[in-house]
Write a structure and sequence with these properties.
The chain is of the alpha/beta class and 311 residues long. The chain folds into three domains: 8-111, ATPase, nucleotide binding domain (Nucleotidyltransferase, domain 5); 122-182; 207-303, no CATH class. Helix content is 59%, strand content 14%. The strands form two sheets. A five-stranded mixed β-sheet has the order 3-2-1-4-5. It has a two-stranded antiparallel sheet with strand order 6-7. Strand 6 (230-235) and strand 7 form a beta hairpin.
Length: 311
């Protein structure tokens, strides 16, 4: 068998209207349009084993990443903070679109970031619905917090706005449930996850949308993806407290609220939580430990269909 070629890294800087790319020694720019994206893909197909490295750009990257993956081109979507830290390590202070494209190519060659997996249409739609639900929830909290301080005129306007947001929230939650029920795979996984006491419909939907790797990785990797893996901060003889960081914030926020409920009502996790508290651990540390247990448990029930939960 011939040896597999090393990937040819391509830096791609994405903005609202244009795409700046760095193909080895060749640099260029194309419009972020149907024609521009098609032109870029044609150029990439002319390279041996192309692998595109781009940043998560507030959602602007979604379309081009989906088209690249559909065309069979490998893509790595990396966090902007990691790339900026790499630039500082190089001593690079300047920042333009073309400089960023070159930087992304070098970042890929040196760091070899994780490849992005294709996301099916059902999961993409579920993400969009959940993002809309999150936006509605945020607006509803803001409006309900302003009402007690509003005068009579503004109070009436805020009351109508709150009523509208509540109706929209109910509607989108119904659409989320319908979408899951219509997809056999999502429905089966959602039902399996909700067998865990403390995991409700919102957490199950969030995990299915934002952690497609669930059931395919080991427990430490899943804990890191959820952002509940403790990292040491030791130096010499000093032993600092462990902190969690990183991971997927959308999932971690929902998981935190679920862990509070599970620490009270889940018969196994409640005992685990109380045991940690009895050892003098702070409440928030105990909640994070429960979150980590729940993340690993959700991974286990999806990975092993024969796994039986303790009652």
């Amino acid at each position: 068998m011939p040896a597999k070629l090393s990937p040819t890294y391509v830096g791609l800087d994405i903005s609202k209207d244009q795409l700046d790319y760095c193909l080895g020694e060749t640099e260029g720019r194309c419009a972020y349009s149907v024609e521009g994206r098609a032109e870029l893909i044609r150029k990439l197909r002319g390279l041996p084993e192309p692998r595109v490295v781009c940043e998560a750009s507030g959602g602007y990257e979604k379309l081009i990443v989906a088209e690249l993956l559909e065309a069979g081109i490998e893509v790595c979507v990396v966090q902007p903070g990691r790339v900026r830290a790499y630039a500082y390590a190089e001593g690079l202070m300047a920042k333009t679109d073309r400089i960023d494209a070159r930087l992304l190519r070098r970042f890929g060659e040196k760091i070899n970031p994780r490849l992005s997996a294709p996301i099916d249409a059902a999961t993409t739609t579920l993400r969009e619905l959940l993002e809309h639900r999150r936006q509605l929830t945020t607006q509803l909290v803001e409006v309900s917090g302003r009402r007690p301080l509003a005068g009579p005129t503004l109070g009436k306007l805020l009351a109508k706005q709150q009523q509208f947001l509540e109706k929209q929230l109910t509607k989108v939650e119904r659409l989320i449930q319908q979408h899951i029920d219509q997809d056999p795979d999502l429905k089966q996984k959602s039902s399996r996850l909700q067998q865990i006491q403390g995991v409700g419909p919102v957490l199950a939907a969030t995990v299915l949308a934002y952690v497609p790797e669930l059931g395919q990785l080991e427990a430490p990797q899943i804990a890191a993806l959820f952002g509940v893996a403790p990292y040491p901060e030791d130096s010499g003889l000093a032993r600092g407290p462990r902190h969690v960081r990183g991971g997927r914030a959308q999932v971690r926020h929902v998981l935190y609220m679920a862990a509070i409920a599970a620490s009270r009502f889940n018969p196994v996790l409640a005992v685990f939580y109380q045991r940690l508290r009895a050892k003098g651990k702070p409440a928030k540390v105990c909640f994070v430990a429960v979150m980590r247990k729940m993340a690993c448990l959700m991974n286990k029930v999806i990975k092993d269909p024969h796994f039986v939960l303790a009652s």
